[in-house]
Amino acid sequence: MKKVLTTPIKDEDLLSLKPGDIVYLTGTLVTCRDVAHRRLIELKRELPVDLKGLAIFHAGPIVVEKGENEFEMISIGPTTSMRMEKFEKEFIEQTGVKLIVGKGGMGPNTEEGCRTHKAVHAVFPGGCAVLAATCVEKIEDAQWRDLGMPETLWVNRVKEFGPLIISIDCEGNNLFEENKKVYNARKLPIIEEINQQVKFIK
Question: Residue limits of the Fe-S hydro-lyase tartrate dehydratase beta-type catalytic domain (predicted)?
Answer without folding.
Answer: 5-178
